[in-house]
Amino acid sequence: MKSLRIIVATLILAYACGCGGGGGGGCGTPGNTAECSSGDICSNLSGDGNACRKICTTQTDCPSDESCLGVANTDVKSCQPRSVSAATPTPAPTATPKK
Predict the structure, then answer these.
(1) Alpha carbon distance 65, 91 (integer Å)
(2) What are phi and psi for residue 38, nearest 5 degrees?
(3) Of 44, 49, 53, 57, which is least surrounded by CB within 10 A?
(4) Which residues have a Cβ under 8 Å from the Cβ of 28 and sit 6 or more positions away?
(5) Residue 16, helix vs strand vs coil
(6) pTM attached to this predicted model
């Protein structure tokens, strides 16, 4: 049980810092490449701070779960996670009044 807690804590920490797949790694200034690995750029992620992400020119440069989007204050694009859109609520059926 203790090892499960350690694994979960490690995963939460890795997710929170932006470490891991798809470039990953936190960075300070969108558009800066010096803070990132070769081929990556510091990208502003919607609601998620900044992270080093793979530079792209077209959608085909990115995995299917990412979008090739512009980086703030630059003419460069990077592969960024697709936002999860809220599901459209299904209207509840209304009772037909009896006559």
Answers:
(1) 29
(2) -60, 130
(3) 57
(4) 35, 42, 50
(5) helix
(6) 0.58
- Per-residue pLDDT at 53: 94
Distance CA 83, CA 62 (A): 15
pLDDT for the residue numbered 26: 85
Question: What gap in Å lies between CA 15 and CA 94, rounded to an integer?
Answer: 43
pLDDT digits 0-9 by tens, 23-39: 556 899 999 999 999 99
Tokens 């919607």 sit on residue: 46
Q: Which residue has the tokens 């510091």?
A: 42
- In the numeric block, the tokens 């959608």 are attached to 59
Burial of 78 per CB tally in 10 Å (0-12, 13-18, 19+): buried
